[in-house]
Structure prediction request, 402 residues.
Amino acid sequence: MPNTTANNILHAVNGYQDALDHQRELSKTGTDYNEQNGKVANTIASLHPKRLELVVSEIIEDTQSTKTLRLKSKNNFLPPFQAGQYINLFVNIKGTETARPYAISSAPQERSFYDLTIKKVAEGFVSHFLLSDVKVGDHFTSTGPMGTFYHNPLFHGDDLVFLAGGSGIAPARSMILNMIEDTLQHRKTTRKLHLIYASSYEADVIYENELKKLEEKHDFLTITWLISRPTKNYSGRTGHVSAELITELLGDDLETLQEKMFYICGPTSFHDYCAEQLKQLKVKARRVRIECNGPPKHPETLSGWPENLIASDKVQVTIHKADGSQGQFEARVDEPLLNSMERNGYSAENACRSGECSLCRVKVLKGSVFNPAEAHLRSTDEAYGWCHSCVAFPTSNVEILL
Ligand code: FES
Prediction:
């Protein structure tokens, strides 16, 4: 195309001449466009701050073992987030500095607080503290919202299935509230939402009344409740999220089922089980998103875990610091290295605690660690002995360079 034709086309674009005039004007005053870059960076930083200062404004008792902490900003600004994302909450428990990622369970349309719905984990260090010791008015620092577990309207479509296990309902609730809002606002007549919510016991079910009301109100939302360890008189559905159950509930031919978008959220064992069921149904990996926040709870059940090593085994961890000092402590093999380091007074920068951001990288000088698939290690890191300490488990006596 001759240049004159291209120029004519550009000039026909609305606003093109104005932009040229503006640029000409700025160049007369010697404007440095790097200043504009700085402004953009500052705007982005203000929308996505690295650290948030939060205060507990309310504590809601959901079930016997679950509470929701409602957190407001100390400076009246909470950054926007994508439904399904999490924040990493920093805590100091009797002198031990540590952090845990928690999915935001409130809707992104709610701009005045974040809800974190937390279930007490047996032997859980942080969940016990958050559920037993925290009071309204307590202060916390966290990262900004992060994570890639969210609905992408360009690629995920409108036929969405949420497979939630236990407290995995937290991100699913945020996504469902968001999707309901979006469906109503944009009058999306093709939108279909199906939640399959699995809990161990009836008493563990979170948000039951709220979800039932939403299902009654919106015919594009259907919910299946599933209890794996029912009491004698329970009359609802029981069992697990099997391939047969998914086929029966979604009631579509296999081809339609394979085109749906599946979001799996819950404990690691639940992720693995559901992913396997979808694989059996030949659902492509790109149609499945798996929530990833936190290290696997039972690494000893994952493939690649060394034979003959049991979860309660202990090893010696020797820490070498850059200043030449060193220290030693004992750690269980099923505890992430970062957690045991923090309990013993050693810290590494961290944000996601899920193997995604690489901030917690440490070098293994001697010995071996187990890196689960979610560690997302680069092959060069692996080759030179680096690991993501938030999701690495020491499987022999190890020496670590901090
Ligand atoms: S804290 Fe992000 S990879 Fe470990």
Summary: The chain has three domains: 51-143, 153-290, 300-401.
